[in-house]
Amino acid sequence: MARIIGIVMLLLLITLTPSPIKAQTYQPGDVVRLVERNLHIPAHPAPGDQSVHLRFISGSTAMVLNVDSASGWIEVSGSSLTGQQNTGWISARYIVGWNGDGKATGGTLDWCPSKGSPIPRVNGRLRIATWNLENLHARDGEATYTGDDPSVKRFAADYERIRCYVRLFDPDILAVQEVDGAEALSRVVDTDVYNVYVSSRPQSAAMNGKQNTGFAIRRGLTVQAQPDFKALDIRGDGTLRYGTRVDVTYNGQTIMLMSVHLKSGCFDDSSTSSACSTLMSQIPVLESWIDDAAEGALPFIILGDFNRRFNQPGDD
């Protein structure tokens, strides 16, 4: 058996709330749009208080009342699930940043860091991150999922803000999930700093865009793109997301990388639901790839959105 240099399974849940920075972009009186999400928007009675006393309606507009500079949380007034106007404190990540007519709601991106370098770090370390970009479409004002419950729409300032956050944590390698394609990913990274790689999963007839995995990798790194790991699409019809595979060489050492996005809807139980059945069928496929990789000489990292809460007792 070849010596195993290293095995790492990595799940970074990047909430991206360096709040004192983002809070600077909002001022009392701004009318903002909240993100669209199935669980709606949790609101809290005070900054930093994790208890949820109400939820604002997903995708609705709200008015900024106050900004807490210490936590970065924002007090807003908006429509709650009860149908009433309520006030509560929310994390800045639940604000899209645009009002209904697609114009900026105030504030600037003067906090945005300068563009990074395409040359990787010289200290012998790589900074590796993963980010589910939540249905990042390639075009302004377009939703990947349409219909009665459309997915989030982005506009120019939204793409710019995401790009600024990428600059802020300055990864050498960024794995991504839920991107429409290379064009969409290129809108949120500096393409003279990063090369982008996106899986080839086809667009579903029921969607207005694609939902793929991928990578943005600093240009100074040597990258060998590998075939997509299509085996995660256990149905074989493109309805499940492929893994994006690349090999990256740094300081003479090659690392095998894969960005994955497993089936959603089975987060912390083992029910017989369709989502759980699908996820449980994907697990041995991924395990088999891991077993094969562990027999080789190269270290590897699997990272992305596993759609599973690994800290649940007995969830081995």
Question: What can you tell me about this protein's structure?
Answer:
Strands 1-15-14-13-12 form a five-stranded mixed sheet, with no helix packed on it. The chain folds into two domains: 76 residues, Roll (SH3 type barrels); 194 residues, Endonuclease/exonuclease/phosphatase (Deoxyribonuclease I, Chain A, 4-Layer Sandwich), CATH 3.60.10.10. Strand 14, helix 4 and strand 15 form a beta-alpha-beta unit. The protein is 14% helix and 27% strand. With 316 residues, the chain is of the alpha+beta class. It contains four helices and 15 strands. The N terminus is likely disordered.
Strand content: 25-35%
CATH topology-level name of the largest domain: Deoxyribonuclease I, Chain A
Largest sheet: spatial strand order: 1-15-14-13-12
Q: How many distinct domains?
A: 2
Reported for the largest beta sheet, the result is: 5 strands, mixed
Averaged pLDDT: 84
Keywords:
single chain; 316 residues; alpha+beta; SH3 type barrels; Deoxyribonuclease I, Chain A; four-stranded antiparallel sheet; 4 helices; disordered N terminus
Indicate the topology.
Blueprint (H helix, E strand, L loop, with lengths): L6 E4 L8 H4 L8 E3 L7 E3 L10 E3 L4 E7 L6 E6 L5 E6 L37 E9 L19 H14 L3 E7 L2 H5 L7 E5 L13 E7 L3 E4 L18 E7 L2 E9 L12 H21 L5 E6 L11
Parallel strand pairs: 1-15, 8-9, 14-15
Antiparallel strand pairs: 2-5, 3-4, 5-6, 6-7, 9-11, 10-11, 12-13, 13-14
Summarize the structure.
This protein has 316 residues and is α+β, with helices and mostly antiparallel strands.
